[in-house]
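Lecture 7 notes: from sequence to structure.

We start with a single chain of 245 residues. Read the sequence below before looking at the structure.
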Amino acid sequence: MHTLAEIAARFPVHRVLAEARLDILLHLVAALVAGGAIGMERSYHGRPAGFRTHALVCVASSLLMLLTVYQAEWFPGSGDAVRIDPTRMAQGIMTGIGFLGAGVIFKEGTTVRGLTTAASIWTTAAIGVLVGSGLYYPAAVGTVLTLGVLAAFRWIENRLPSHQFAQHRIRFARDSVMPEADVRALLAKHGFSVYGLTYRLADEGRTFEYRMTIRTADEVNFTNLARALAALPAVREFDLFPAGD
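Now the structure, written as tokens:
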């Protein structure tokens, strides 16, 4: 029986290959952890680009940098015999894919949707560049990590504590306006904090309107607040637009 060290000494090429694969794996896992950590902070503060979006973008960037780091494996050349930069092809591909990704992002009220889909398209393009260059191992690892982000990270993201934001507007008849203190008390009763409260007269002065951004830690509070506002005779109209990815 031979030890692993003896086997590695007899087969130095295999040892180098194993070290390279470990290095690639460490690069991609580190990118996943770093992007996920940043995205977790963004998700906690209720930002549209959150946990999965940041993780995907970071992994894709790491994949493309590996294309440059291991360029000698897929584009051999030495000295002045070759005077081209093949990584420009990857740069052009990713620039073009950016337009495709922008096409799946849309805004509905104050809610931005499609960011994770756009990030997954960008990641898929990066994997395709690696496959086309013959770097199958980092492409395979990137594919597995991407699937993990899209599937497993959704489960994690749904269970992370986070702040939920919404744009809120309430209208009253001008002669029966609810005092600001009462509006704030109503919102606080249902678990909301108020930011950026503004006032407006509408309908040629017949309607008084409060506009604000509200925040809560529980998404169910939106439903409870809507029911409470609908039951108030003084409220002529209200809008409640939760923000999210």
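The two ends are 57 Å apart (CA to CA). Keep this in mind for problem set 3.
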